[in-house]
Amino acid sequence: MPTYDISTHLAALYASADDPWNTRTSPYEQDKFAQTIASLPRPHYRRGLEVGCGAGALTAHLARRCDHLIAMDCTERAVAVAQSLSDLTHVVFTCGTAPADWPRHAPDVVILSEVLYFLTDAENAGLAARISDDCTTDCDIVLVNWLGDTSGPISGAQAAVRLTDKLSMICKKISSECFHSFRIDVLRKC
Ligand SMILES: C[S@@+](CC[C@H](N)C(=O)[O-])C[C@H]1O[C@@H](n2cnc3c(N)ncnc32)[C@H](O)[C@@H]1O
Predict the structure, then answer these.
(1) Pocket of ligand 1 contains residue 119 by CB under 6 Å
(2) Which residue(s) pair with 68 in the sheet?
(3) CATH 3.40.50.150 is right for the domain spanning 4-189
(4) Of 80, 143, 153, 156, whose CB count within 10 A is highest?
(5) pTM of the entire structure?
């Protein structure tokens, strides 16, 4: 799990609102999702994995680009909300914490949107190991990170750099773009 404090914090957020970041309604989030989808290097993927799917707003967009998609979140309420709002039969929502509960799935695309800065350095390293072990060669890995205050120990930019550095031996950088308040980095496993 994320550290006790983070898990408790996340559970409390979802206890007070089904979609604490207003991902389903905010124009800012819709713009960010559009940029995220536009950053995908390939038009179509066989098996996607979305880590930290939250209330499932980005999931709905990703689902159009994947034959099969696993959307995972560590907060039970988030998964319940995402599941209840989706009628997509090729998307499986699951409650689990990255990296410990990474599902063996051989994904050819992995989306890490606004989740990396919740991870400890050890969890970040574990995530790099799962990407190394389980992702297909040529898997695209998309990192989306808020550039403002995360209220946590590391910033979104630091979290992105931390994972990118750990993957540097097995991934090449496809793109890295800063928008007004978030950045999107795309890596490809070699
Ligand atoms: C800020 S929300 C982002 C939701 C969505 N990905 C987006 O970009 O709109 C972060 C989500 O990541 C989940 N999360 C945080 N740490 C996680 C971990 N280690 N494994 C899985 N989910 C995690 C939280 O429960 C929360 O729903």
Answers:
(1) yes
(2) 47
(3) yes
(4) 143
(5) 0.97
